[in-house]
């Protein structure tokens, strides 16, 4: 089940991030995530199975530039490769497509996950080495949703 994030989920989401450090996130990113949860959430969703949160991911909007950014996708390591990330991303893509003020979805990811987004139709626009932390490169990717939007 995918549902809206609530403040009561915070500790569970931080624990979920911890499960993915250091393989997918650098330890230095934990403070950024806590700050995001406190100050930057616009739309954020959790994926629950039997009342256990096993995934999460958000959307931030830049209406002025007709963009939305998929942010902070985290899946419990025991559930990688089971389609949960894909369901979370597709849920947000469908939500974004319903907003006629958005043309492009942006995702900022690393070399560890860019192929996942590539399979979902995102293209790599640029790569910045050691952006997130040493050994964690930024892959800036985008998806033009006008091509995918039903008219």
Which features characterize this protein?
151 residues; 4 helices; seven-stranded mixed beta sheet; alpha+beta; Aminopeptidase; 7 strands
| Class by alpha and beta content | alpha+beta
Main sheet: strand order:
1-2-3-4-5-7-6
From the alpha-carbon coordinates, what is the Rg to the nearest angstrom?
Answer: 15 Å
How much β-strand is present in the residues? Answer: 35-45%
How would you characterize the largest beta sheet? 7 strands, mixed
CATH evolutionary superfamily:
Gcn5-related N-acetyltransferase (GNAT)
Indicate the CATH class. Alpha Beta
Q: What are the secondary-structure elements, in order, as H or E?
A: EHHEEEHEHEE
- Number of alpha- plus pi-helical segments: 4
Helical content stands at 25-40%
From the N-terminal CA to the C-terminal CA, the straight-line distance is: 29 Å
The residue-averaged pLDDT reads 93
Shape: globular
- Low-pLDDT regions: none
Which CATH architecture would you pick? 3-Layer(aba) Sandwich
What is the number of independent domains? 1
| Beta strand count | 7
CATH topology annotation: Aminopeptidase
Descriptive notes:
The protein has helices spanning 10-19, 29-39, 84-97, 114-119; strands at residues 2-4, 43-49, 52-62, 67-75, 104-109, 123-133, 136-144. It is an alpha+beta fold. The chain has a single domain (2-144), classed as Aminopeptidase (3-Layer(aba) Sandwich), CATH 3.40.630.30. Strand 2 and strand 3 form a beta hairpin.
